[in-house]
Amino acid sequence: MATQPDSTIKQEEAHDGTARMSFFEHLVELRTRILHALLYVGVGITAGLLLSDKAYLFLAKPMVKALDDAHVSNKLVYTSPMGPLTLYITVGIYLGLVIALPFVLYQVWLFVAPGLYRHERRAVSSFIGFGTLLFLAGAAFGYYLALPMTLKFLLSIPGPFTPMISINEYFDMSMIVLLGLGLVFQLPILIFVLALFGIVTPRFLWQNFRYAILLIAIVAAAITPTTDALTMLVFMAPMIVLYLVGIGVAALVVRGKRKRSEELSGAGAA
User: Is residue 175 located within the same domain as residue 190?
Assistant: First the structure.
């Protein structure tokens, strides 16, 4: 098998600090990273199952407070003998995946980093970091603001009813709100990727702002468990702000690409 000249290898090492890996070495590295990621997921789920009762007590606080404010019994119920066990297993799995996520992302980073240039490594690490922070910010917004407002409205509906909230149904609803908002808060990241590949521009995003508002309203209606306008506006407000932030992000991307293009043109002319 022919080997690369030393000069070529040195050039490649100068770009990213590491020599190129063969196809077989990539497969071995991929297998290693997958096994490590699965190990972290297993450890995370084990820890999540051990902490699932405490995690659910934290998750149930908005529901308990809403029941207290409505001056009714704050005891949650289950309607199936398997209800509590199913709940704790589900909560443990969700919590375990959250615990394992940073370690899994680190394994992904270890796999892709050797094939990237130094500036690309910084971009990917920033991408993962900001994506994680935005997801946590969305979940926090849902837990501390959107979910309490939603529960308060639902319990204020008049009628000859006595609320008996099922633990499993409440968990399902709260996950829709928290995960939905966590994903919605990834909007600037999505716009960043689209702008990076030239699919959207700041001008395009601004000119289509009214259509974006319509799409945001549809998404808000899908993840809002209620039908009142006030709660829907609470869900829409951060999405509109994030869209405007995304326009700014797209402007920075376009400016950076233009600057690099000018530098390359200047270097070529020289």
Answer: no
Taken in order 105, 106, 109, 110, is the CA torsion positive or negative?
negative
Q: How far apart are CA 116 and CA 124, in angstroms?
A: 9
- In angstroms, the Cα distances linking 67 to 6, 143, 159, 174 are 73, 16, 16, 15
* 4 has a pLDDT exceeding 60: no
pLDDT, tens digit (0-9, with 9 covering 90-100), for 91-108: 999 999 888 888 888 888
The CA-based diameter of the chain, rounded to the nearest angstrom, is 84
Q: What are phi and psi of 67, to 5 degrees?
A: -65, -40
Rounded CA separation 39/96 (Å): 12
All residues at 6 or more sequence positions from 36 whose CB lies less than 8 Å from its CB, including other chains: 107
**Full residue range of the structural domain in which residue 192 is found:** 186-265
Same domain, 39 and 64: yes
How confident is the model over 168-221, as pLDDT tens digits? Answer: 999 988 988 888 888 889 888 888 888 877 888 899 999 999 999 999 988 888
Reported as half-sphere exposure (CB side, CA atoms, 13 A), residue 112 has a value of 13
| CA pair distance 57, 59, nearest whole angstrom | 5
> What DSSP designation does 114 have?
G
For residue 72, is pLDDT > 60? yes
* Cβ–Cβ under 8 Å, residues 242 and 188: yes
pTM above 0.90, yes or no: no
| Closest residue by Cα to residue 190 from 104, 146, 253, 270 | 253
- Lowest model confidence (mean pLDDT) among 58-62, 122-126, 207-211: 122-126
- Do 232 and 175 reside in the same domain of the chain? no
- Distance, CA of 158 to chain centre: 36
Provide the domain count of the chain: 2
Query: Does the residue 11 lie in any domain?
Result: no
